[in-house]
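Private note to self, pasted from the team thread so I don't lose it. Backbone tokens:
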């Protein structure tokens, strides 16, 4: 795989994260963000809305996001059900709660077969969220996981409808995520192996 295409998603995300603006324009959150009191990158919000708008136009599927600091004591599934109560069919909702470290994807029945929820969470989001951050900038790490998960949802919806997205950054960055995923499982394996070795030595 060409290195440029492999790193395309990561490069665009980095460029989006250079500019932060805490005084976001109100209309940025009025489209596909059902809730957002955590994501502060104006560029990233605009890009997500741009991709979601194209997906909606070409497939009729709405990809919504709820990105919050906390669920305020609610279970994430309870929180999601409250948000989708007023939604029409053909929707996907990506939810992330910073304080509880919870992330989930829910969709309407007519769309559930169009995406692989477990793969998106296990390979495109969780490895980024749990990766060791030497610089200590967890905010950018959270942003990367949110954007990568959202972008993969958009890609999978587009593929299922056999359409091309001009606004998304494609699925070519999967190799990068596969590396993170491999590191994640290697860490788990190393921990288990070390634990077993210590028990045997005793």
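Design output:
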């Amino acid at each position: 795989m060409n290195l440029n295409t492999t790193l395309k998603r990561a490069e665009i995300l980095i460029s989006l994260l250079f500019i932060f603006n805490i005084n976001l324009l109100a209309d940025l959150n009025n489209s596909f963000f059902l809730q957002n009191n955590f994501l502060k990158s104006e560029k990233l919000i605009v890009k997500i809305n741009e991709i979601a708008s194209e997906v909606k136009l070409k497939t009729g599927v709405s990809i919504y996001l709820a990105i919050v600091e906390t669920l305020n004591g609610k279970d994430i599934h309870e929180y999601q059900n409250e948000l989708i109560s007023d939604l029409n069919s053909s929707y996907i909702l990506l939810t992330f709660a910073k304080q509880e470290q919870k992330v989930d994807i829910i969709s309407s029945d007519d769309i559930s077969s169009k995406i692989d929820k477990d793969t998106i969470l296990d390979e495109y989001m969780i490895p980024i969220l749990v990766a060791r951050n030497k610089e200590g900038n967890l905010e950018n790490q959270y942003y990367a996981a949110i954007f990568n998960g959202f972008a993969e949802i958009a890609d999978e919806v587009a593929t299922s409808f056999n359409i091309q997205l001009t606004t998304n950054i494609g699925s070519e960055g999967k190799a990068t995520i596969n590396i993170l995923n491999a590191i994640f499982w290697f860490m788990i394996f190393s921990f288990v192996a070390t634990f077993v070795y210590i028990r045997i030595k005793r």
